[in-house]
Design a protein that fits this description.
Elements lengths: L1 H5 L7 H26 L7 H4 L31 E7 L5 E2 L2 E5 L3 E8 L5 E7 H5 L7 E5 L4 E7 L6 E4 L11 E7 L1
Parallel strand pairs: 1-4, 3-9
Antiparallel strand pairs: 1-2, 4-7, 5-6, 5-8, 8-9
The chain binds copper (II) ion (CU).
């Protein structure tokens, strides 16, 4: 190394390369974390539930943990609803578009809009949802990257469904099916 320096050639020693790489990694990780907590809708949620349902950072896919009928599944109750994350958009679609709930359980739908289009989320008896019937539980004006929640108890006979009734969205296919299990 000294010999190289004496010749006037600057050679970065291997340990320095490693140090720089580690530093870059730390900085990028910190930046990434800041991005997630700063812009992600999940930054607004409680930390414990944040990653519990799985990550959707990789795209529009949503994992919501165990479903009804799976070993270890815990049904939501009025006192402790099961949180199901739903992504509205981009485009005129929900992800997931089929959601399984246990008969009688109480679910809090946490709906996040991806993309610039403002969406709504209505859930209830399928015929009421299809008809956009007034009085059917709904959250509206869910803007880009915003998250709104709606809690619903599936204690009727079904069938149940969910949909977005922003102008033209339902007609464009922005709807989903609730599957009652049990
Ligand atoms: Cu919509």
């Amino acid at each position: 190394m000294n010999e190289e320096r004496s010749r006037g050639v600057f050679v970065v020693p291997p340990w320095a390369v490693l140090l720089i790489a580690v530093a870059a990694l730390v900085v990028s990780t910190a930046a990434l974390t800041a991005t997630f907590t700063g812009r992600s809708p999940f930054g607004m949620m409680s930390g414990g539930a944040m990653m519990g349902g799985g990550s959707m950072m990789g795209g529009s896919s949503v994992t919501n943990g165990l479903g009804p009928g799976e070993s270890g599944f815990v049904s939501g109750t009025a006192a402790s609803p099961r949180v199901i994350r739903v992504i509205a958009g981009p485009g005129y679609a929900f992800s997931p578009s089929t959601i399984a709930v246990a008969r009688g359980e109480t679910v809090t739908f946490s709906v996040t809009t991806m993309g610039p289009t403002v969406h709504e989320f209505m859930v209830g008896p399928a015929d009421a949802v299809a008809a956009d019937q007034p009085g059917t539980p709904e959250i509206a004006d869910i803007g880009m990257m915003a998250t709104k929640s709606l809690t619903f108890t599936f204690d009727g006979p079904g069938p149940y469904a969910f949909a977005c009734h922003a102008d033209g969205h339902y007609e464009a296919g922005m709807r989903g099916v609730i599957t009652l299990v049990g």
